[in-house]
């Protein structure tokens, strides 16, 4: 009986941490200087609960950055960077990333400490991006002489610009934005050849 009573406690603790992290994203996106108490109130937990889970504010921010990095990595993995046809993988990954980045703007803007788990996850995602770009180049979607590190930087810039948005983009779904990003990455703004 002791084991079964421990499981709900762990599930409750996990839900509590998830609620705290989600509230932290909302609150810190609006006010990066918000206090732990403000985050606790937004999460619907006692101030002592947030302090029990996170020793100090930076520990909470670090946990938030790690959680967001994991979500982003899952979004990339869900796009099947190694197995989906490159054009399909690029579109899926782009749509998934836009969705996650749109929901976790504060957390994904937090600089990750070198050597941290979050930094390692971001490095791994950069590798996945290069893999997809290499596969796209092998299929002739990207010029054979293109510097893929530069192409990746351009891709990241297009993602960032899509996220910052424009008044004209209000209400545009992530699939449409993803199509724009991938089309611009692969074809630029020049005239289309017949």
Automatic annotation (TrEMBL):
Entry keywords, A to Z: DNA-binding, Transcription, Transcription regulation
Regions recorded as binding DNA: 35-54
Pfam family, one: TetR_N
Keyword DNA-binding attached: yes
SUPFAM superfamilies for this protein: Homeodomain-like
Position of the signal peptide: none
Domain HTH tetR-type: 14-72
InterPro entries, alphabetized: Homeodomain-like_sf (IPR009057), HTH-type_TetR-like_transc_reg (IPR050109), HTH_TetR (IPR001647)
PANTHER family, sorted: HTH-TYPE TRANSCRIPTIONAL REGULATOR BETI, HTH-TYPE TRANSCRIPTIONAL REGULATOR RUTR
Name of the featured protein: Helix-turn-helix domain-containing protein
């Amino acid at each position: 009986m002791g084991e079964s009573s421990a499981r709900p406690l762990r599930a409750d603790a996990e839900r509590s941490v998830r609620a705290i992290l989600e509230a932290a994203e909302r609150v810190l996106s609006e006010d990066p200087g918000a206090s732990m108490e403000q985050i606790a109130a937004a999460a619907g937990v006692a101030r002592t609960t947030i302090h029990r889970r996170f020793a100090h504010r930076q520990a909470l921010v670090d946990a938030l950055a790690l959680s967001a990095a994991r979500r982003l990595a899952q979004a990339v993995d869900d796009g099947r960077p190694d197995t989906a046809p490159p054009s399909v993988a690029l579109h899926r990954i782009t749509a998934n990333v836009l969705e996650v980045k749109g929901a976790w703007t504060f957390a994904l803007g937090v600089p990750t400490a070198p050597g941290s788990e979050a930094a390692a996850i971001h490095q791994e995602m950069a590798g996945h991006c290069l893999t997809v770009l290499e596969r796209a180049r092998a299929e002739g979607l990207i010029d054979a002489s293109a510097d893929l590190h530069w192409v990746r930087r351009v891709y990241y810039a297009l993602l960032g610009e899509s996220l910052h948005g424009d008044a004209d983009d209000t209400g545009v779904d992530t699939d449409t934005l993803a199509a724009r990003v991938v089309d611009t990455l692969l074809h630029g703004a020049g005239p289309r050849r017949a």
